[in-house]
Amino acid sequence: MSGPVPGVDGVRSALVRLRTRTGLSAERLRSTEVGVRPILDLPVVRQIVNTTDKTAPEAALEAVRRIAGQLPTEDLVIVDMALSLGLLAQRFPDEPEIETLYAADVGERRERLVELWEPIHRLLGVSLPERHLTVRALRSTLESSAIAKLAELCVSSSVLDVALPEPSTTTDPATRAATVSVIGSAVVDHIYVVDHIPSPGSSTPLISYETHPGGKGLNHAVANARLGMDVHMVTAVGDDQPGQMLLDYMASEGLRLNLVKVVPNAKTPVVGVFMTRNGGAVLLPWMNEGEIRLDPADFHTHSLRGVLESSDAVVITFEQPMAATREVLRVVGTLEKKPLIVVRPSPPIASPQFLYEHFADIDYLVGTQWELRELLSGATDEITMESLASSLLMLGVHGVCITEEFGCMVRSEHTRADIARFPTALRDTPGAREAFSAALIHRLLMKDRKIDRSDLEWATAAMTAAQSFGGVADSMPVAQQVDRVLKVAPEQDHD
Prior knowledge:
The protein has helices at about 10-20, 25-30, 35-40, 45-50, 55-70, 75-80, 85-90, 95-100, 105-125, 135-155, 215-225, 240-250, 300-310, 320-335, 370-375, 385-395, 430-445, 455-465, 480-490; strands spanning about 180-185, 185-195, 205-215, 230-240, 260-265, 270-275, 280-285, 315, 340-345, 365, 400-405, 405-410, 415-420. By secondary structure, it is of the alpha/beta class. The chain folds into two domains: about 10-155, no CATH class; about 165-490, Ribokinase (UDP-N-acetylmuramoyl-L-alanine:D-glutamate ligase). The longest helix has 22 residues, at about 135-155. The mean pLDDT is about 90.
């Protein structure tokens, strides 16, 4: 585990010392005698190291360059010159004079900035400051002030501010896979299989014990990816060994990791899963919400907003804090190109009525009768599934899928369907609803959101294909496995 998160003073001091000579570069960070550890230990730098193949010096240069781009124009230009970041050269590649701004000595760089001050502002299309720029002003106050602002941003920025875009898997729009963003949790599941759940004061021997990657968000993301979709996982993990294990697993499943928030010095969430032989389960989650979470501000970072805007579908679980859930629903509801929005309302939350204003933006709610009932204030156990679905539709949701014991009831503006379970040895299994939801999204995006009963049967079959006593994410099916369930099942009355 890494050391403490650096403070502003340490970062500022390191950057001020690095402005001398050639400025900031990956090579200088590797070899300089300047104390650069405060920069290398920045959370934004660790984020890049943990989610790319860049070394710490390369990641530090990338992070500082990206964060410097958020500064006001005058400070950005001064920092670019002082640290020789090359930002203006990148923005104006056809202006050879700009390259002269990055001389090997900071004194020469200051002189060139004074000479190019007016042309640079003209290129940027902004008004020239009233203050007359001099080398003395740069050396005495302006550089230190601009670098101090940069240091504050480096320490306070969301780690997702520096998320690097990952290359597209294809450049041909005709063959581009549907893009899905999944917002939820990634945890380590400790799975205990028992004959029965013991009552207080008693015990029962374990049949088996295993550790696997899990979390409703991660399970859903894997399910989408195995059905051929291009999946962005939006979550948070700690920078401990379990967190690295989850990152490695997500990478092995082909998930995009640039929006996985790696929290310094924090422990990754774990869930105790007690499963009986018939597939019933009791979950005991420790989510470490005080440290491991997405924050509302994360959804306003350029990188995350850009991914949401380009997504064909967005999946939201209730595993993140209420404030984050409300904010992502608000953000996706304001996007110019509205993605398909599917919500897994699990685990149930207190005061769900605070989300009602966003229900009109939700295309489908997918959950058990219990999970969906918890969305209605004052609803009792006696409420029928029909009344439950009707109540949620009246609140503005466009579609409701109630999934129980591998079967489902679907009610939407255009569809009424009751799909019986396919033959299965288990009563239920964790991950069934994630498999259903991913399969539903797959068919909705394939058919321009116009689905029929056969598509709902396919999504229901995905639950049977996902039954497992082992790792839930590992049990998520590929399309051929779902097809096989349909092929071997009787044509009528599945069970």
